Amino acid sequence: MPIYQPEIECMERSEIEKLQLERLQWQVKRVYENVAMFRERMDAAGVKPEDIKELKDLAKLPFTTKQDLRDYYPYELFAVPKKEIVRIQASSGTTGRQIVAGYTRNDLDNWATCMARQLAAAGASDEDIVQVSYGYGLFTGGLGAHGGAEKLGAMVIPTSSGNTERQIRFMCELGSTVLCCTPSYAMYLGETVREMGVKDQLKLKAGIFGAEPWTEDMRKQIEEALGIRAHDVYGLTEIMGPGVSYECAEQAGMHVCEDFFIPEIIDPDTGAVLPEGSFGELVFTTIGKEGMPLIRYRTRDLCSLNYEKCACGRTYVRMKKPAGRTDDMLIIRGVNVFPSQIEEVLLKIGGDVTPNYQIVVDRVNNTDTLDINVEMSEALLSDDMKSVAAVERKIVAQLRSTLGLGANVHLVSPKSIARSEGKAKRVIDNRKLI
Ligand code: DLL
């Protein structure tokens, strides 16, 4: 599979580190001079830009959090005059105050480069037709994937999300070869393709899906439904958008664009940097960004980093699929549960249930309750009540052995749970309203 920038994506580790140190020193000096918050924090920690002499000195710098982006909203973290900012994007967060990110022209160009790397890693080239079914607008998915596909020289079809049957007609008639959208929307598209009976008219070969956690079983289902290779892509608005890291043909972790971002894994409780290979909270420092650079930004995403050389030839470190976030982890009767663990159980049950589910957590008489609504398959719907009850019992038992937690499982009719065109809303936690 061709590599978009082999001279950069396959650098020796010593060269990567040399480049990172130069860029880090440049960045720390800029934020110290141009952003009051960073200067005040560094002064309080007794660190000056000259103290960054080697990469491990990064650990001397204070963290930045999402709350900082809220507190300094909208423009106070920008490191350039406002007139140099040519684009604003905003986070899709559903809780708290909106945060914004600002990009200079160079920032947009570098972002497009990262996304072009990702598309090439999934096998795309200027011969391809890329259908972007991420939402366009403040969410970074649509415009991010769009910029990368244009930079690669592919033909872009900017359908945005929604209007699912029309999307599929376009896909068939225009011969889209690469699809970009959220994994939950890819599942929905796959389901609709089946209903429309048009799988044999698709020309798709690859899909690039991210913006939310998804499991290996979900990957298999999407690959099967659309007849493609499905690749993961990670990113966040604060740091850039999609393309901070991306999966190659090996499908074995996402290569971080280390020429633009330095990743660290920390203990979320103590903030200590953890040894190579440890599982913990992912932290990024942007070392190429002009508009809104961030130093040691705590993503809240939980994963690990793998520095072993990848079979694809790229040397950039690979991050494991985030297993969840420190802040979407549910604590139910004292047990830590990530929605992705529940999804894994449901997907392993097989053909009797569909991957459409909703988790409802509540508190009754001071005790947490966990209810899971799962759509059953059409076939199971036409079976008798006894078979439905047997499948429910099977899921309850699997959840108990995987999570160590009792749950109430309700099999509901096909199509009764609302579909998502963007990020899926899988969890309703009613305890927060109390
Ligand atoms: O979701 C950017 C994006 C768009 C990434 C399209 C990939 C594709 P935000 O809306 O700011 O940005 O949300 C960022 O989404 O901190 C993760 O918790 C989660 N996330 C993003 N990609 C993945 C992924 C975009 N591949 C937050 N796997 C991040 C798991 C992901 N979680």
UniProtKB/TrEMBL annotation:
Domain AMP-dependent ligase C-terminal: 334-431
E.C. numbers: 6.2.1.30
GO MF: nucleotide binding; phenylacetate-CoA ligase activity
Top enzyme class: ligase
Keyword flag Mitochondrion: no
Annotated metabolic or biological route of this protein: Aromatic compound metabolism; phenylacetate degradation
Origin: domain of life: Bacteria
Residue stretches making up the AMP-dependent synthetase/ligase domain: 74-284
Subunit structure: Monomer.
PANTHER family, alphabetized: PHENYLACETATE-COENZYME A LIGASE
Family designation: Belongs to the phenylacetyl-CoA ligase family.
Function text: Catalyzes the activation of phenylacetic acid (PA) to phenylacetyl-CoA (PA-CoA).
Identification of the protein by name: Phenylacetate-coenzyme A ligase
